[in-house]
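Weekly modeling sync, notes
Attendees: S.R. (lead), two postdocs, one rotation student

Agenda item 3: backlog of single-chain predictions. S.R. asked that every request posted to the team notebook include the full sequence so nobody has to chase files. The rotation student volunteered to paste the first one in as an example of the format we agreed on. Action items at the bottom.

Example entry:
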Amino acid sequence: MSTVVQPCARCGARWSVQGAPMHWCPRCRGVLLSPAPIDAPAERRNYRWVARVPEHRTHHARVPVRPATGARPPRYTSIPRWGLHDPRPQAAVAPRQPLSALTGSVTGLLVTTAVLFALAALAEVGRYLVLLRNRTRLIPSAVLYTSDAFVIGAGVLALVFALVAAVAVLGKLIEIRRAAYAEAGRRDPRSPRALAFGCLVPVVNLLWPMVFLSEVAALRDDPRSRRAIRIWWAAWLFGGGMAVAGLLWRTADSLQAEADGVLFTALIDVVAATVALSTLWTLRTIEGRDLRGRRRIEHRWLIAVDPIVPVIEPVHPGDHDRTAGPVLAEAPATPATETGVENREQEEVMAK
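Predicted structure, as returned to the notebook:
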């Protein structure tokens, strides 16, 4: 038996060297130290022994050692769950904006409000015709009840939808302002509460909506939006003045004033329908759309600095050198006794 052994650095087993030194322990696949004689002194070996607890070697011996496999790739009976996870990128969820439930239906609300005010105007006109008929004849009760129901129902529904549409327009205004300031890399300096106070409080809302919309138009430098906002504000002020005049008109106690108040109420309803449609037109103009919601095509005008060059040279009367095709040879002098027929033939040749 060879007296030269190789100790294992993992399990401590000693393996005799029969030929070339080994590198790995056949038992635990640990690293084999350099060959040295059995019980060689420390100066003759290139390693040193370290004292361990008595249970250390026994504990490692109990650990099952997996036999070494070949160079085959690993095989799995199921999809391995280890490794780095690469989840799909989730779309960023935009924060829920206030009044978002009504903002999406602002177009339908404004159109419905305009239709209801138009129906209310027709109901008031029908009421006025009933009053005219009642001057000479009695009106059946069924006609009066129908007229009352039509006037009250259309008027109440128009007012309710007008309030809901105003809230929806407020939500749309908040979205438009946030988008405009985000494009400029800024944050809207006005809070939603300030916008709601300026748009929904009576008397105050006669001025502040114009300011809020003008800030957006100035931020985007859109002259078309400025013009639309001014037209809308004029209609808005006119409608507010008509509403105040209608309330004052109801204080009259004469029959003629009450009859005229019916027609004036019909006119107020027509103005309110116009204001609703102009509001929708203004919002879509600010968004770059027309009244039907189609994307507006921008036109770019360029300044022409070059002079206009005619493609076809104009005809100059009396200039035969430019108008005639082939150049004719000079004709010999003819005697003065030639007739007028020959002169006319020569002029026709020259014209050709």
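Discussion: group reviewed the output briefly. The chain has two domains: 1-65, 100-286.
Action items: rotation student to repeat for the remaining queue; S.R. to check formatting next week.
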